[in-house]
Specification:
Blueprint: E1 2-4, H1 10-22, H2 31-36, E2 41-46, E3 49-60, E4 63-71, H3 80-94, E5 99-104, H4 107-112, E6 116-117, H5 124-129, E7 143-148
Parallel strand pairs: 4-5
Antiparallel strand pairs: 1-2, 2-3, 3-4, 5-7, 6-7
């Protein structure tokens, strides 16, 4: 079941994201960071636990970011990531956003969903909103991908 995240989900969301952050596969998130943007998140709940999570962050009038996509290790390979991204893309369309992007260490996954490679220089609003505060700035090693929405 995919649903909007709830306050009770925050500890599991943080644990799931930080599991992959410890492996160097995504950036870490604190509970404060997640609480402050909780309305951006959707979760897949299975057996009363968060099995997957993702967020849609509005960056500008014409751009949103798919971020913090994480699937529990024992739930991977079941299409949960695809379902989360499709849900977030539907939300972006309902907001009439013309495009979304992601910064990822797993570009092949997003290419399968119709995203195309992009230059980070073409995302200046993202750079000034978030990236400038990142410890990896300006040497970001994530791949940027964009999907135009019809």
């Amino acid at each position: 079941m995919i649903r909007k995240a709830k306050i009770k989900d925050v500890p599991e969301i943080v644990d799931l994201i930080n599991y992959y952050a410890q492996k160097g596969e995504m950036l870490p998130r604190t509970p404060v960071q997640v609480y402050s943007v909780l309305r951006d998140f959707v979760v897949i709940e299975q057996e009363h636990k968060v099995a997957g999570v993702g967020a849609l962050s509005i960056i500008w009038s014409d751009l949103a970011e798919v971020r913090s996509l994480a699937i529990a290790p024992d739930k991977q390979g079941r299409g949960l990531g695809r379902r989360i991204v499709e849900t977030l893309l539907d939300e972006a369309r309902s907001l009439e956003l013309p495009q979304v992007f992601t910064l990822t260490y797993k570009p092949d996954f997003f290419v399968k969903l119709g995203f195309t490679l992009a230059d980070k220089k073409d995302l200046p609003h993202k750079i000034w909103k978030d990236c400038i505060h990142c410890p990896k700035f300006p040497d970001c090693d994530e791949t940027a991908l964009v999907k135009r929405l019809g």
